[in-house]
Specification:
0% strand, single chain, 19 helices, mainly alpha
Length: 373
């Protein structure tokens, strides 16, 4: 039976709720087939929340209970455990629900950038990415972080279309909250702040009637709000621990890096850590979606159209190269590249649209030639 791709798109592409249900179903299956102990980090974070509940305190920096981790995941795990007294289940359910809900802000963010069709295919591809499924099945911080980051991106794009203070404020607050979940959200909000400053000077025509001065004030406001937690965290460490970046120094994989340098040599380790990011993307994304993402990214470069998602992907790649390659400060794990992988997937919709259009064009040309023949 012949499937009409265009009719399929018309029927489903405006229904992100159906994609969410698909993501929830896949993630639930993964949840039922796994347990929280497959990742030692998630197990330890649940124990941290339990210990924190015994004697709650305001987490303003690294401490004996939550170590160097950002505080929000501990707060959320503690909150859900205090409501539902099943520490091996409730944090996982929280992660399952919030990770699956990421489909909505992701879909609408891609829709703003590339259109409904691309949004549908990008959100659909995300459902089958193992770096999206894995954190949803366990009590991991990466999935919840995805939800917060894409909510911030969504309201940022809303602001770009409306120049509304409300949307800018929500984007900044959600960006700040994302940094309270994971430090690697920082490069994204920094890039968004830089882009706001550039937009303020570049958009001289200012389609929403906002003056350049007002646009600069909004950019500074966004930067201050979104970076407020990071600033507080650094100051607290400086005052209490004598080093503004204690959490970075204390979590460096010095011994691990030394071990791998001894085994692989400097060049071998650099090569491995450089290839790690694209390698994990290739293995965690279904190959058709990976190919479509590569095609979509190439089309973006070819058209010289550089949307927000393009710059955010670049920010995460630069962060990865500096942290894991240039400085050899950390040894990479697959979950560390969850954000750049999902951002890369956002381009799969453009790639699918391009490939489907080319295929349809060739089919029409073949039909015309056969009729003429």
């Amino acid at each position: 039976m012949k499937i009409n791709v265009l009719k399929f798109e018309e029927h489903f592409q405006n229904r992100p709720s159906l994609i969410f249900l698909l993501a929830l179903a896949i993630n639930t299956i993964a949840y039922l087939l796994s347990h929280n102990y497959i990742d030692g980090d998630t197990h330890s974070r649940t124990i941290m929340a339990l210990n924190w509940l015994k004697s709650p305190f305001f987490i303003y920096g690294p401490n004996d209970v939550t170590w160097v981790f950002a505080p929000l995941h501990c707060y959320l795990n503690a909150a859900i455990i205090s409501i539902w007294h099943e520490p091996t289940v409730s944090p996982r359910i929280l992660s399952l629900v919030l990770t699956s809900l990421t489909i909505f802000p992701l879909y609408h963010s891609v829709r703003f950038e590339f259109g409904v069709r691309a949004a549908f295919y990008s959100a659909l591809a995300c459902c089958f990415c193992t770096l999206f499924i894995h954190p949803a099945a366990i009590a991991a911080s990466e999935g919840i972080n995805l939800f917060l980051v894409f909510c911030s991106i969504y309201f940022f794009l809303l602001y770009r279309h409306s120049a509304s203070w409300r949307n800018l404020f929500l984007s900044a607050i959600l960006g700040m909250v994302a940094t309270m979940m994971r430090y690697d959200s920082g490069p994204l909000i920094s890039m968004m702040t830089i882009l706001l400053v550039i937009y303020a000077f570049k958009d001289s025509a200012n389609q929403h009637g906002t003056s350049r001065t007002n646009a600069v004030i909004k950019a500074i406001t966004f930067g201050l709000i979104s970076h407020s937690f990071a600033l507080m965290w650094v100051i607290a460490q400086w005052v209490n621990l004598g080093h503004p970046f204690h959490m970075t120094v204390d979590s460096l994989d010095v011994n691990v890096i030394k071990h791998h340098l001894a085994n692989r040599g400097w060049f071998g380790l650099i090569l491995y850590q450089t290839a790690f990011l694209p390698g994990v993307m290739l293995l965690s994304i279904p190959f058709p979606a990976f190919l479509a993402s590569a095609v979509g990214l190439f089309q973006t470069l070819k058209k010289r159209h550089f949307p927000l998602l393009f710059w955010l992907l670049n920010a995460m790649v630069i962060y990865y190269l500096v942290t894991f390659v240039l400085t050899l400060a950390r040894y990479p794990l697959a979950r560390f590249v969850t954000l750049p992988t999902v951002l890369f997937l956002c381009f799969s919709g453009i790639g699918v649209s391009f490939l489907v259009d080319r295929l349809s064009e060739r089919t029409r040309n073949s039909s015309s030639q056969s009729r003429l023949g």
